[in-house]
Design goal:
There is one protein chain. 58% of the residues lie in helices and 15% in strands. The radius of gyration is 15 Å and the shape is globular. It is built from 5 helices and 3 strands. It has a single domain (3-103), classed as Arc Repressor Mutant, subunit A. It has 107 residues and is α+β, with helices and mostly antiparallel strands. It has helices at residues 3-6, 9-17, 24-34, 43-55, 79-103, and strands spanning 22-23, 59-65, 71-77. A hairpin with a 5-residue loop joins strand 2 and strand 3 (71-77).
Length: 107
């Protein structure tokens, strides 16, 4: 995982789960597929982030059968997670706008 991704991983996970419950592999796969393989999240980063988010009350999990009929832990957003997604999205957009101003060539 790149350093740029490290600071936004929780936001990206929250956004992924806004589409509905997913297990860890499906979260990583969705991020990779949606970003045209630009974002690759390793298990060693994904699962600790999901654990932290669960501890904070942003996601809840339960065991279900995956599409391959295997037991998998599925994660879903809570109301607190939806609020956090909105907050972090707003903060991220403000950050991107500030960086864009700095990166613009002087006129």
């Amino acid at each position: 995982m790149s350093d740029r991704l490290r600071g936004t991983l929780e936001l990206l996970i929250l956004r992924t789960l806004a589409w509905g419950p997913r297990h860890g592999y499906a979260i990583a796969r969705w991020l990779q597929d949606t970003s045209a393989a630009a974002l690759r999240v390793e298990d060693g980063s994904l699962y600790p982030a999901l654990y932290r988010m669960e501890q904070r009350g942003w996601v809840q999990s339960d065991w279900r059968r995956s599409e391959l009929d295997r037991p998998a832990k599925f994660y879903r957003l809570t109301a607190a997670g939806r609020r956090q997604l909105k907050k972090e999205t707003s903060e991220w957009r403000a950050f991107v706008a500030a960086v864009a101003i700095i990166l613009e060539p002087n006129q």
